[in-house]
């Protein structure tokens, strides 16, 4: 009898152990994978999904910030075609912008401009596709790294959000240093998770020096932990990469600016040691990035903040490596929220990390109940598993709604400028004039060669506007006397004689003051497209596309290309 009871107790204990192993995810033994068995996701699905979405972004994305045009597309246009606008940051007196970053894109834009000759719009989109390719490769490697370390589910959720969240869709093909830093953060995070610490630090260094120096805060956690793991080898790798790229940047700056200088140090000096006056270009409140983050990532942005709370129940899965990877979200948001000058693009470097953190939280939903309800087949655990794809689907649907609203509400400028190619009969030397819509100028890539010049018309703006590169003064090495770092308007930036304008770009928002296009004796409207009126449209309906209500509730103006009627 005693022997039978002992056997029963032993059997019950073994059954309990097996049950615990079956129901406790954290204590579950790792599955041994044979040499021939593939671990994690393969390359095919991430490359195909990301490649398709990045191509869609490259061909349909709007330009979200005039800095992208005037500080990057215009210098590239000047390098390729010897014409374009110059900002004060590119004056050799200040030299705040790196030409090495521009030359990187000229490696693609140059051959494209030779092949397509005068089809400059094609060159613009080819460069964008190049940006999409970089985004695709770096993000695909990140997804693969996540799948190998944490499983296919977390990787798949991250992949879905990288593909479809509005923030990643728009940032991935923007020609901005913050986007380049995003690529570097993505790639260095992937390499860190794969245990390639030397490469992770080298990529992080390239992102900081070649892209955006301030992104050093974003790559610091991965860099520090890589140095702890690899020590001297990792340090030497990062040091050699930094010295090489910095030296190359100085040489390129010397070639372009005509003097020995470093745009990297100049930018840091202006914004840090020199008490930079970025506040001159607009300030926002402390909640700006929280609102902006929700608009671009909706509920996944909220879930990303819950990641730290979920560590209590998922620490064995995610700490320390995944915490190291996503920790820049909180560091960067805290730091940037304290700055007076805020821009949406400043958050680009952490966009992929938001997707990772949110995906980890969604993947961990059942863990909330496993510790309390040990039975894997319980209704509450099953419900939490069903809840995972539901919340993911909700995030993706709202993201698509946001993307659709922006693309269809604000794409008119890019499309209207394309109509210029149909009016070559206006003759060589035509003058294209732009008034208050200067900040939506899509770049000189959209201006045909028969247009002799693009001029600004005074419509009340009192800040400093870009001026054409002047080859007689030295082109990239010139220091135009009209430039200043105080955002004070120059007398020479406006065309005073509006009668010299052949074409005019205008946004007619049906305000009480008359539009130039209303003068039918002087101007004819040769192209027009609807443009979402931000001021008169409700915030919810303009931010997210809601079927039927989007057209009904929002107010639209007309974005117009006007052509002067010849005098008889």
Tags for this model:
about 575 residues; alpha/beta; five-stranded mixed β-sheet; two-stranded antiparallel sheet; 21 helices; 7 strands; about 55% helix; globular; disordered N terminus; EC 2.4.1.-; transmembrane
Record the SSE blueprint.
Layout lengths: L1 H22 L20 H17 L5 H16 L3 E2 L12 H18 L3 H31 L1 H13 L1 H6 L5 H17 L3 H15 L4 H15 L1 H26 L5 H11 L14 H31 L2 H6 L1 H10 L13 H13 L3 H4 L8 H32 L1 H7 L11 E5 L16 E6 L10 E2 L34 E6 L14 E10 L6 H5 L5 H5 L2 E9 L4
Parallel strand pairs: 2-3, 2-5
Antiparallel strand pairs: 1-4, 5-7, 6-7
Helix pairs in contact: 2-5, 2-6, 3-4, 4-5, 5-6, 5-8, 6-16, 6-18, 8-9, 8-10, 9-10, 9-11, 10-11, 10-15, 13-15, 13-16, 13-18
Give the structure's gist in a few sentences.
This protein has 568 residues and is α/β, with parallel strands linked by helices.
């Amino acid at each position: 009898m005693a022997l039978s009871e002992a056997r029963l107790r032993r059997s019950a204990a073994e059954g309990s152990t097996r049950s615990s192993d079956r129901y406790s995810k954290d204590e579950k033994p790792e599955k041994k994978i044979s040499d021939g068995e593939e671990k994690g996701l393969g390359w095919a699905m991430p490359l195909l999904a990301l490649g398709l979405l990045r191509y869609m972004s490259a061909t349909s994305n709007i330009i979200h910030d005039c800095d992208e045009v005037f500080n990057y597309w215009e210098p590239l246009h000047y390098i390729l075609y010897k014409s374009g606008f110059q900002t004060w940051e590119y004056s050799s007196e200040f030299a705040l912008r790196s030409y090495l970053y521009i030359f990187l894109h000229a490696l693609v834009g140059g051959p494209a401009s030779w092949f397509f000759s005068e089809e400059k719009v094609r060159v613009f989109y080819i460069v964008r596709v190049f940006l999409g390719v970089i985004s695709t490769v770096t993000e695909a490697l990140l997804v693969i790294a996540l799948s190998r370390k944490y499983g296919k589910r977390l990787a798949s959720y991250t992949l879905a959000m990288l593909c479809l969240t509005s923030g990643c869709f728009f940032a991935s093909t923007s020609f901005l240093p913050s986007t380049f830093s995003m690529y570097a953060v993505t790639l260095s995070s992937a390499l860190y998770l794969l245990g390639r610490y030397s490469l992770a630090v080298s990529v992080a260094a390239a992102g900081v020096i070649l892209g955006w120096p301030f992104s050093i805060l974003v790559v610091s956690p991965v860099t520090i932990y890589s140095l702890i793991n690899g020590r001297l080898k990792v340090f030497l790798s990062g040091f050699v990469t930094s010295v090489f790229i910095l030296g190359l940047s100085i040489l390129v700056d010397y070639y372009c600016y005509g003097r020995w200088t470093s745009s990297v140090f100049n930018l840091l000096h202006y914004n840090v040691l020199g008490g930079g006056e970025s506040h001159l270009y607009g300030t926002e409140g402390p909640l700006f990035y929280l609102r902006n983050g929700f608009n671009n990532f909706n509920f996944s942005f909220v879930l990303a903040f819950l990641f730290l709370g979920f560590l209590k129940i998922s620490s064995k899965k995610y700490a320390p490596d995944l915490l190291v990877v996503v920790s820049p979200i909180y560091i960067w948001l805290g730091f940037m929220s304290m700055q007076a000058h805020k821009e949406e693009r400043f958050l680009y470097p952490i966009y992929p990390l938001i997707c990772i953190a949110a995906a980890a939280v969604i993947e961990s939903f059942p863990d909330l109940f496993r510790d309390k309800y040990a039975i894997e087949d319980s209704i509450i655990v099953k419900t939490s598993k069903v809840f995972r794809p539901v919340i993911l689907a909700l995030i993706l649907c709202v993201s698509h709604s946001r993307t659709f609203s922006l693309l269809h509400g604000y794409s008119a400028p890019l499309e209207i400028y394309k109509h210029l190619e149909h009016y070559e009969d206006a003759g060589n030397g035509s003058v294209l004039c732009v008034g208050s819509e200067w900040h939506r100028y899509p770049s000189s890539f959209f201006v045909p060669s028969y247009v002799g010049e693009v001029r600004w018309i005074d419509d009340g703006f009192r800040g400093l506007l870009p001026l054409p590169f002047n080859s007689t003064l030295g082109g990239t090495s010139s220091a135009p006397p009209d430039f200043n770092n105080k955002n004070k308007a120059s007398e020479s930036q406006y065309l005073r004689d509006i009668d010299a304008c052949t074409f005019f770009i205008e946004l007619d928002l049906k305000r009480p003051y008359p539009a130039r296009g209303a003068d039918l004796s002087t101007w004819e409207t040769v192209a027009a497209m609807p443009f979402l009126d931000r001021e008169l449209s409700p915030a919810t309906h303009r931010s997210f596309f809601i079927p039927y209500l989007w057209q009904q509730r929002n107010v639209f103006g007309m974005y117009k290309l006007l052509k002067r009627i010849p005098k008889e």
